[in-house]
Amino acid sequence: MGTDIKAGIHTVTIAGGPLAFPCGKDDTILSGGLRAGIGLPHECLSGGCGKCYFDLAGGAVEDIWLEAKGLSPRARERGRRLACQSRPLGDCTIKLRPDPALAPPIRPARRPARLVSRRMLAPGMAEFAFAAEGAARFLPGQFALLQLPGVAGRRAYSMSNLANEDGRWEFVVRRVPGGAGTGRLFEMEEGAAVELDGPYGNAYLRTDTGRDIICIAGGSGLSPIISIARAAVADDELLEHRRITVFYGGRGPDDLCTTTFWQENRRLHTHAECHVAISDPTAAGAADWTGHRGFIHEIVQKVLASADMPNFDYYLCGPAPMVEALVELLETGASVPRGQIHYDSFF
Ligand SMILES: Cc1cc2nc3c(=O)[nH]c(=O)nc-3n(C[C@H](O)[C@H](O)[C@H](O)COP(=O)(O)OP(=O)(O)OC[C@H]3O[C@@H](n4cnc5c(N)ncnc54)[C@H](O)[C@@H]3O)c2cc1C
Ligand code: FES
């Protein structure tokens, strides 16, 4: 398979092995590889985690976001690149080690989509629903990349609903002050067009382990956790043997919007225990707050103090520092095996 000039498709070969895949003109090396079903190392697809780095062994690539923080300036100087921020300019050869465990369980695809509804959940926090042709196929906990009109680069948002035949993709999004993507998203009119690419992500619900499920989210990390909790409580077989506990932290009471979902979904109400916490004593309404106070990793530690922590599956989502603190607490502090901790850091 060589360059198909008409279709703008180039062949990317992984050095030292038989693997090669086609990469379309709008694809990065990472999205091209994942579309072909190859387990290229990755996590965020947003230039933040650095897990998709590779060395170029032949050919040329275009770096589409030079400021991406996932690579240090030193690594860049040495010629290292991020597969999620590199587009091939012709056929090329790359050096990296694929991991079959990271092959996408559902092949990601790009599709046009339209905003069909938006509802505010809390100040600066809204649920957006998009409609796209065909069924919406994804696993609970996965995310999609949205190309928003007039915004440079794609933004990752995790689905909050469940896979469905209607082509409906829902996301809970927190508005970031000064953020280009969320600024655009929160101003979009119903009917506005975007491009939706997905599903991506490895922090999806594992249904067959037999272990109880602990979901922990901070701020905008709520979206995938709602999807995971919704899927778990909808599964009668899973509920027979497994308990579901959700922890959710925000700065103040205004940031916490789990109540909406728990009120709307009877099964969440009866089958998923929910602990919410605020971390900022100066936030509006904090003086009257009677629930947990502190950072969410502290609350997890307190609530699970007498539990058999190494024997649960953990799903973590939210800002990178929160996820790092939790991974440290679980792995080092509580001896939870790495394979039982699934997370997405929001860069
Ligand atoms: C796996 C994952 C899942 C996420 N899920 C959610 C979710 O469900 N809900 C939610 O509220 N947030 C989520 N986020 C965060 C979200 O993707 C955005 O970072 C956040 O909304 C802020 O975007 P912004 O454009 O407003 O801010 P900005 O500060 O303008 O941009 C923030 C991010 O956008 C990307 N970016 C910026 N400029 C460029 C560029 N030129 N080229 C390429 N990329 C660029 C970078 O990742 C950057 O960190 C998720 C992030 C990740 C990695
Ligand atoms: S997957 Fe490329 S930096 Fe995270």
TrEMBL record:
It comes from the Bacteria. Gene3D superfamilies: 3.10.20.30, Nucleotide-binding domain of ferredoxin-NADP reductase (FNR) module, Translation factors. Signal peptide: none annotated. Residues 108-206 form the FAD-binding FR-type domain. Transmembrane segments: none annotated. Residues 10-100 form the 2Fe-2S ferredoxin-type domain. GO terms for molecular function: iron-sulfur cluster binding; oxidoreductase activity. This is FAD-binding oxidoreductase. It comes from Ancylobacter mangrovi. The lineage of its organism: Bacteria, Pseudomonadati, Pseudomonadota, Alphaproteobacteria, Hyphomicrobiales.
